[in-house]
């Protein structure tokens, strides 16, 4: 490798400038990754909070019985008044409930979810909870 071009003063400065730019470029993705990880953590916390609230509501409904809930969020970016923010919109709900074998109970569960999250019925899945050994 020929490094004679480094002997000239101007070339040394160019090399230092290029190295500095390289360091800056390498540092930028790191901060974006941290922001993405924070967003995912916040999104999961939001999902967990929504799941816990929905579980409480559904458990209190007549005929539902024991219930488990899973909610997925669709993250969208909003730009409002010059500030960027991300919001999570419910994109799907799965409910596993003891009373899900009853059509009336399933309708009540579905209606409650549609009212709470403004999502279409095809984004809601309601299934009967499997009998546990303790329940048999």
Task: Give a written overview of the molecule.
The chain is an alpha+beta fold and 136 residues long. The protein has a single domain, classed as ANL, C-terminal domain (GMP Synthetase, Chain A, domain 3, 2-Layer Sandwich). Helix content is 49%, strand content 25%. It has two helices and three strands. The chain has helices at 9-60, 103-117; strands at residues 67-80, 83-97, 124-128. A three-stranded mixed sheet has the order 1-2-3, covered by helices on one side. Strand 2, helix 2 (103-117) and strand 3 form a beta-alpha-beta unit. The radius of gyration is 27 Å and the shape is elongated. The chain starts with 8 loop residues before the first helix and ends in an 8-residue tail after the last strand. The model has no long low-confidence stretch (mean pLDDT 80).
């Amino acid at each position: 490798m020929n490094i004679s071009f480094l002997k000239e003063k101007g070339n040394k400065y160019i090399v230092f400038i290029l190295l500095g730019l390289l360091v800056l470029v390498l540092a930028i993705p790191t901060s974006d990754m941290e922001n993405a990880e924070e967003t995912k953590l916040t999104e999961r916390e939001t999902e967990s909070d929504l799941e816990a609230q929905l579980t409480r509501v559904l458990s209190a409904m007549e005929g539902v019985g024991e219930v488990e809930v899973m909610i997925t969020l669709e993250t969208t970016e909003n730009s409002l008044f010059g500030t960027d923010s991300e919001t999570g919109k419910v994109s799907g709900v799965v409910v596993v409930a003891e009373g899900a074998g009853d059509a009336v109970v399933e309708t009540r569960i579905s209606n409650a979810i549609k009212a709470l999250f403004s999502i279409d019925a095809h984004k809601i899945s309601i299934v009967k909870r499997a009998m546990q050994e303790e329940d048999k």
